[in-house]
Specification:
about 30% helix, elongated, alpha+beta, 20 strands, zinc ion binding, metal-binding, about 25% strand, six-stranded antiparallel sheet, Znf_RING_CS, 6 helices, Butyrophylin_SPRY, seven-stranded antiparallel sheet
Amino acid sequence: MSPACSGTSEHHFLCSICLEVLTDPVTTPCGHNFCKTCISTHWDTSTTSRCPVCNQVFSTKPQHQLVEPVENLESRMCPKHSKPLELFCQSDQTRVCLMCSVLEHRSHQLVPLGEDLFEDKKVYLQQMIQKRREKLEAIRESVRFRKEAADRGKAEGVEVFTALMELVERGLKELMKTMEEQQEAEEREAEGLIKELEEEIFELMKRSSEVEQLSHSEDHLLQHFCSLKAPPATKDWTEVMVHPSSHEGTVLRAVMMKMKMMQQFAVDVTLDPLTANPYLVLSDDGKQVYCSDKKELYPDHQDRFDSYQVLCSTGLTGRCYWEVERNGDVNIAVSYRGIRRKGNSDDCWFGFNNQSWRLKCYRGFYIFRHNNKVTHTSCPCGSSSRVGVYVDCPDGRLSFYEVSSDSLTLIHTVCTSFTDTLYPGFWIGFGSSVSLSPL
C-alpha cells in the first residue's frame, strides 16, 4: 500500500478531488482514494485515465471499489496450513483451504465459497427437508394402510371364525348327541340284562333254600317228591357278552368329514375356446391356458374377449368349489356371462364392473376387486401357487383360499347377492399361465 493510504489520519477517508469524506469510495491501482462520482467525472472530461494525485496513467479505467474491513480475519484462515479458507467441502460440511483440498479432502466434493454457496446450501437443505417430509408422509400413509388392512383382516377373521365356531359348535352338538344316544342305548341293553340276571339269581337262591330245608326233613316221601320237581327255567348266558362301543377316533372322523365338505361341492370346469382372446393358447382338453406373444388364428366370434381374458363353459349353480394352479401374473374371477367382450372399457375387465368379481396377487398380497372397488386383503401370497374358489350361489357367498398340501388358508370372503349364473374366468398376463387342477 502507498503512503497515501497508510496511517490512521482522517486524510485516509477524504476524497483527493472534492476533499470531502468519501462517498461510494473507490481506489486506484496507485493507492489513492476517491469518491466514485468524482473520479468518474474527472476521467469523463479527460482523454486519458490518469490519477489526479500522482499522474500515473492507466490503460483502462480501474473498477476497484473499497469494501469494509474484514473482521475476525483469523477465522477465515486455515488453522493447519495458515491459508485462506476459500473452498467448502460438501462431503464434510466444512470450509477448507487449497492445501486441504489436495491433501485431507482430495477425493471430496468441493465448491468455492461465496453467496451462491449459501443459496445452494439453503436449497439443498430445503430439498432434504422436503424429502424427509415426503418420507414421513409415506410412512404415515403406510401405517394408515396397514391399520386399515389389519382392521379389515380382523373383521374378516371375526366373521370367518364366528361362522367356523358356529359350525364347530353344531358339529360338536351333533357328535355329543350321537354319542349320548349310543351310550343310553348301551346302558338300556345292559340294564335289561342285569334285571334278567337278578331275577334268575333270585329264583335259583329260592330253590337252593328249599333244597336246604328238605335236606333236614325225615319225610322221605316229601324228599323224593321235591327231588323230582323240575328246576326253574334259566337262560344260557355263555354267549351273552356286553361289548362297549369304542369312541376312539370319533372326533378325528368328525373333523375329516368337515375337511371333505369342500370336495363334495367340487365341480369340473373347462375353458370355453370361443371366449379366449387370440393371444391366449388353450390346451386340447380345455384345462390349461397361457398368454403367448403370437396371435392365434381363432375364428371371429361375438363372445371372444378383446382383452387377455377367457371364461369357462361351466355355469355355476348351488354350492361349487374348484382349484386353480397359477403361474405368473394372473387374475382369478367369476363373472356373469353377459359381461361385455369387445373394447377396453371398464365394462370389459373382470372386477371393474358389477358383472364380475376377481382376485389378483400383487406385490406379495392378494387384492380383491368388484365394481372397480379395490379391497387389500390381509393375507400375503404364500409359497403355494394353488388357489381354491368356493361359491355359494343361494347364500351369495364367494370365498378364495390358498391351498397347500396340508392346509387351507382363507384369503378373502365376500357376501353379496348373485342375480344370474356365474362362470369362472381368468385374465392372463404375458408369459403367465393357469391350470385347472383336478380334486
